[in-house]
């Protein structure tokens, strides 16, 4: 499909720079068979049915943004995928000043050797020393705020809390599964009281999620791989919910993509562990999920293509036009939509 079909006008003022407070006070645009309705995230127990299951991504964002030097040259690195115990693939700023074998000093006693430059301009970084890389990143790294927020204001202490979900346990993401940022203990208690369950899986979100689609046709776009895991118990639970007439509602596109990667043509979800680079565009037949709760996405992005595949391009264009006119807040710290085809 032509990528231009997924474009829309978004005023810069609609980009949220801070999350709602409390988190579940964010607005919620509900799209289902009854039409389109304006609600809040706190209303979610009334928008779902007893027996439904929400599936959250329990990945935890690491301080994956690094600033360093190679000689006199300033080098920026954004880690996006782990390739070994001490090796990360990273997108590099000022990459023209970097060659295979060059050392980068990130300060605080943190050094890495660059190698294996890829076609997308990324490098492999091998971190020196014996300390766990996680400790090195805690010393030298920063929270990797999305570029559309970082370009408008500096990172501050609030972001260390604001950019983690209440489910964050498995360290490894370089971007938050932002749909889950809306959830609070109070909302989870209300969902439980309404008979709506929840489960978790792990998909370590990579920085590739922010890369623009440069191809003119969706067939020519290459997705970056991300590592994920669904264990046997979680797969069994998802399948049991479906058998009992409940719906699987993915919280966030990361949860959705992993479930779809693990689901077969028979719509059975199986245990999964490994990389996925699934790219969902209109025409895709969903096998593992029945609905999606997600934030509002960038024009021409792979994530807007995904929601258009779920609900139809014309309907999503109309919904986003309504959201812009109604002053919904967009992107990572913005409002949410509940999509029930």
CATH class bucket of the largest domain: Alpha Beta
- The CATH architecture name of the largest domain reads 3-Layer(aba) Sandwich
CATH superfamily of the largest domain: QueA-like
Q: Helix/strand-derived class?
A: alpha/beta
Counting DSSP E segments of at least 2 residues, the number of strands comes to 17
- Taking Cα atoms only, what radius of gyration do you get, to the nearest Å? 20 Å
Q: What number is the mean pLDDT?
A: 96
Shape: globular
- Report the sheet-strand fraction: 25-35%
Catalogue the unreliable spans: none
- SSE order: EEHEEEEEEEEHHHEHEEHEHEEHHE
Largest sheet: 9 strands, mixed
Catalytic activity: 7-aminomethyl-7-carbaguanosine(34) in tRNA + S-adenosyl-L-methionine = epoxyqueuosine(34) in tRNA + adenine + L-methionine + 2 H(+)
InterPro entries: QueA (IPR003699), QueA_dom1 (IPR042118), QueA_dom2 (IPR042119), QueA_sf (IPR036100)
Function: Transfers and isomerizes the ribose moiety from AdoMet to the 7-aminomethyl group of 7-deazaguanine (preQ1-tRNA) to give epoxyqueuosine (oQ-tRNA).
Pfam families: Queuosine_synth
Describe this structure in words.
The chain is an alpha/beta fold and 341 residues long. It has two domains: 3-61 and 161-339, QueA-like; 65-142, Thrombin, subunit H (Beta Barrel). The chain has helices at 44-47, 133-140, 147-150, 157-162, 185-193, 232-243, 253-262, 302-311, 313-325; strands at 27-32, 35-40, 53-57, 59-61, 65-70, 73-82, 87-93, 103-105, 111-115, 123-127, 170-173, 197-203, 226-230, 248-251, 272-276, 291-295, 336-339. It is globular. It comes from Sphingomonas dokdonensis.
């Amino acid at each position: 499909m032509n990528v231009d079909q997924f474009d829309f006008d978004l005023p810069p003022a609609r980009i949220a720079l801070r999350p709602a407070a409390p988190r579940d006070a964010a607005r919620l645009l509900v799209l289902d068979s009854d039409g389109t309705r304006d609600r809040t995230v706190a209303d979610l127990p009334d928008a779902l049915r007893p027996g439904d299951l929400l599936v959250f991504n329990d990945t935890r964002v690491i301080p994956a943004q690094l600033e360093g030097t190679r000689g006199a040259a300033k080098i920026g690195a954004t880690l996006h995928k782990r390739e070994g115990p001490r090796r990360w693939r990273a997108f590099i700023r000022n990459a023209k000043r970097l060659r295979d074998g060059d050392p980068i000093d990130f300060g605080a006693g943190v050094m890495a050797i660059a190698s294996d430059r890829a076609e997308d301009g990324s490098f492999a970084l091998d971190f020196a020393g014996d300390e766990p890389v996680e400790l090195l990143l805690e010393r030298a790294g920063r929270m990797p705020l999305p570029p559309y927020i970082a370009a408008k204001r500096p990172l501050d202490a609030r972001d260390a809390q604001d950019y983690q979900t209440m489910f964050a346990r498995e360290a490894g993401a370089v971007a938050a599964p932002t749909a889950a940022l809306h959830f609070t203990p109070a909302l989870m208690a209300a969902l439980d009281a309404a008979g709506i369950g929840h489960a978790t899986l792990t998909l370590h979100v990579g920085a590739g999620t922010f890369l623009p689609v440069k191809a003119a046709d969706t067939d020519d776009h290459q997705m970056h791989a991300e590592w994920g895991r669904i264990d046997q118990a979680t797969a069994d639970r998802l399948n049991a919910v479906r058998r009992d007439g409940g719906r699987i509602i993915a919280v966030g596109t990361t949860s959705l993509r992993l479930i779809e990667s693990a689901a077969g043509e028979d719509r059975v979800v199986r245990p999964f562990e490994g990389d996925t680079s699934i790219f969902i565009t209109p025409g895709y037949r969903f096998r593992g999920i029945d609905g999606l709760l997600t934030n509002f996405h960038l024009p021409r992005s792979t994530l807007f293509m995904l929601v258009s595949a779920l609900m139809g391009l014309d309907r999503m264009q109309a919904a986003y036009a309504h959201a812009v006119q109604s002053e919904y807040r967009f992107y990572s710290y913005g409002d949410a939509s509940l999509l029930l085809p």
